[in-house]
User: Which sequence fits this backbone?
């Protein structure tokens, strides 16, 4: 076999391996090894993503707030996974102080992007903040519905009235510091 024939054979083998890999990714519910997203499809202009949670395959057809519930479920399902194959498992294995630190770092990065006037940066960092908040909730045993219920309770109530109804002093004032009004 000549060099040209060997090159063509190698290219065919590479295409076959790539096709086989894509087939495995599809069978894994849109996820690559380690839980990374394998890709989405477009259907009528709507982004679609498939996520495997436990033994269930969940298909998301819209970019809306329900993504938070799905990501929470994925993080919860990674609670007992190996920290070597899951970023969420690694964070959870490091304990509450490290999770809180990561959440704080992401929040600060979001604030920096906001002060820079960078909307794309704010969007990207906001996604990081929300992810790390979900990890914090999983660590604390808080289900998203609990937070949604609290937000629903507060909806339509003046912020001033809501704070007054709590009947307690803000943490910053209890520690002798002052808040910026």
Assistant:
């Amino acid at each position: 076999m000549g060099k040209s024939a060997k090159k063509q054979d190698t290219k065919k083998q590479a295409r076959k391996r790539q096709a086989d890999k894509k087939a495995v990714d599809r069978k894994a519910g849109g996820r690559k090894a380690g839980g990374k997203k394998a890709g989405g499809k477009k259907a009528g202009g709507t982004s679609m993503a498939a996520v495997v949670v436990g033994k269930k395959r969940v298909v998301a057809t819209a970019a809306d707030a329900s993504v938070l519930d799905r990501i929470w479920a994925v993080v919860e399902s990674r609670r007992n996974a190996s920290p070597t194959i899951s970023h969420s498992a690694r964070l959870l294995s490091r304990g509450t102080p490290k999770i809180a630190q990561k959440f704080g770092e992401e929040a600060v990065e979001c604030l920096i992007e906001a002060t820079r006037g960078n909307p794309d940066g704010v969007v990207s960092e906001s996604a990081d903040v929300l992810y790390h908040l979900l990890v914090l909730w999983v660590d604390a045993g808080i289900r998203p519905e609990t937070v949604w219920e609290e937000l629903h309770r507060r909806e339509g109530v003046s912020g001033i009235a809501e704070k007054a109804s709590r009947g307690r002093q803000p943490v910053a004032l209890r520690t002798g510091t002052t808040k910026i009004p």
